[in-house]
Amino acid sequence: MFAAQQLVFYYATSPAHMGAGTAVGAIDSPIQREVHTQHPQFAASGIKGAVRHHLHALWGKTDHLLERLFGPETDASEHAGAVAFSDAQLMCLPVRALKGGFVYATCPLALARAKRLAGMAGLPCPWEVPAIPDNQAAVRKELLSQDRLVLEAFTFAPCEAETGRQAIAEWLARHALPPGAENAFFAEKLQKDLVILSDTDFAHFARHGMVVEPHVRIDDLSGTADGGGLFYVENLPPESLLVGLVQASVERYKKDKKPENALEDAGEVLSRVLQGDGTLPGIADRIVQMGGDGSTGRGLILIHPVSREA
What keywords does the record list, in alphabetical order (predicted)? Predict the structure, then answer.
């Protein structure tokens, strides 16, 4: 169905709220999570909608290209879109550390899933997924305090996987962020401060390491807090890294409605959305607002596609 695909990293430059509706519990508005891992995720439908909205502002109605590639706005039976997005899976999570301020934490499960996605996109991953015992971490020695890694209120002993960690960190630093001086600090920190925890230990931070913000509804007449208007919103923290795929097919259309300038190469469709064509820009290495609370600066996501030559 899809003849072209590319690996894409999503880097949160602000707290991000991809909402999952309401929930019973202390958090009134939780974020989207996978059922089986409870890792935060960006659902494909939300990514596609945000990208379409962003490109609508950049492209307008030029040759109806947006409708041709993403599908019609109203009559879905007219034709299917030529671009598809996978769910974005959690790759690295910022966790407060005693040394270095914070670390980029990941786990074997997250690494294995990212490696699988990269393989689907034809991107080589010259590293192996390490095995990490519970209560241990693959970490460079400079982050240790009295021979222990301290994250939040927990301590972890270093394990014998530093060589493997370094190879993964270098690969991520090279591929996960766009080149340029504005991203150099974070790419270097990702290389130095990547920490690999066990799946069990990482799951704790993925479940309890989110930004929870209280919101208060203001009465329009009095200008003071409205009684009963307090609610709590969960956000993915800034500096989080997620990964997914963007896939493309040739343009779809009914036999008698083929446009004269139809894109009949899936690679060209993918390039139009990601890189643009010189006159209409793409989304590569741009900040795209995703999720709720955009008016308060939430959901600013840097999208970085990785080419096979990278």
Answer: Antiviral defense
pLDDT tens for 168-198 read: 999 999 999 999 999 999 999 999 999 999 9
How many CA within 13 A on the CB side of residue 158? 16
Closest CA to 156 of 113, 218, 97: 97
Question: Domain boundaries in the chain?
Answer: 94-112+120-208
Given pLDDT bands bounded at 50, 70 and 90, which one contains residue 47?
Answer: very high
**Is residue 74 scored above 80 in pLDDT?**
no
| Ordered DSSP codes for 226-280 | EEEEEEEEEEBPTT-EEEEEEEE-PPP--GGG--TT----HHHHHHHHHTB-SSS
Residues with Cβ within 8 Å of 88's Cβ and at least 6 positions away in sequence, in order, are 8, 10, 41, 42, 44, 47, 242, 243, 244
Q: Tell me, what's the pLDDT at 218? A: 79
Confidence of residue 223 (pLDDT cuts 50, 70, 90): confident
Write the CA distances from 267 to 44, 176, 231, integer angstroms.
20, 21, 46
Report whether 135 contacts 156 (CB < 8 A). Answer: yes
Three-class secondary structure of residue 38 per DSSP = coil
Q: What is the DSSP letter of 301?
A: E
Phi first, then psi, for residue 292 (nearest 5°) are: -90, 175
Q: State the DSSP code for 153.
A: T
Quick: pLDDT tens for 114-134. Answer: 999 999 999 999 999 999 999
